[in-house]
Amino acid sequence: MSIDITEAVKAIQDMALMIDPEEDYLTIVAAEEKFAASEAKRKKELEDAHANLKSLAKLLEAARSSSTRPKTVPSAEAHVATLNELDRFKLSLAKSISDAEEQLASREAELTSLKEEARGLEDYDPALDHEKELDGTALRLTIYKGLGFEPLVERDGSVSKMLIRSQSGEIHRVQLTGKKGESECRHLWQLAAS
């Protein structure tokens, strides 16, 4: 198949009418401008995305560091152990306080008892109590016995006889007449002095 040169030239000439280099140039310039604008827009978007990525990375790092337990703060296990230890200490302290309160109550009761006893001792007169305790009759009988006179008490409580121990050691038994005369008294003293 051979194409005739003339036909080819004619086809090119027909085509030349359709080809407008100025229009093509303007189209190419417009396309290049569109490409440049599109590239500038894409570059701006890329820079914005990169800046946004940097700020998000900083936020992520800040969130990561704030969510990470600082070295000064104990771990969860150490925190639980510390709480348990504090609870044990609290119970021990409560028991110590309870024991101290019991001891204080005991001491206060003892103090009250001692104050009452001290008040009683301040009001207490031993001579008066001793005097009350002493029976005058028993005291007189002891004095008489020391002097050598020992009355013999009958079942009915009356004294009708007297034992007299003399200074020489002899014991005399004397029947009392019941008269309170001077002669009977003198006779008893003479027996005691013999």
Fraction in helix = over 70%
Question: Remind me, CATH topology of one domain?
Answer: Double Stranded RNA Binding Domain
Which overall shape is indicated by the principal axes computed on the Cα atoms? rod-shaped
Level-2 CATH architecture of one domain: 2-Layer Sandwich
Structural class of the helix and strand makeup? Answer: mainly alpha
Rg, alpha carbons: 69 Å
Question: Major sheet: size, sense and barrel closure?
Answer: 3 strands, antiparallel
Largest sheet: spatial strand order:
1-2-3
Q: For the residues shown, what is the average pLDDT? A: 84
End-to-end C-alpha gap: 202 Å
Main location: nucleus
Pfam families: Spc24
GO molecular function, one term: microtubule binding
Keywords: Cell cycle, Cell division, Centromere, Chromosome, Coiled coil, Kinetochore, Mitosis, Nucleus
What's a quick, concise take on this entry?
GO terms for molecular function: microtubule binding. With 194 residues, the chain is mainly α.
Q: Would you write up a description of this structure?
A:
- The structure is a single chain.
- By secondary structure, the chain is mainly alpha-helical.
- The protein has a domain at 136-193: Double Stranded RNA Binding Domain, CATH 3.30.160.430.
- The chain is built from six helices and three strands.
- The protein has helices at residues 5-18, 21-67, 76-123, 126-133, 136-147, 182-193, and strands spanning 149-153, 159-165, 171-175.
- The protein has a three-stranded antiparallel sheet.
Brief descriptors of the model:
194 residues, mainly alpha, Double Stranded RNA Binding Domain, 6 helices, rod-shaped
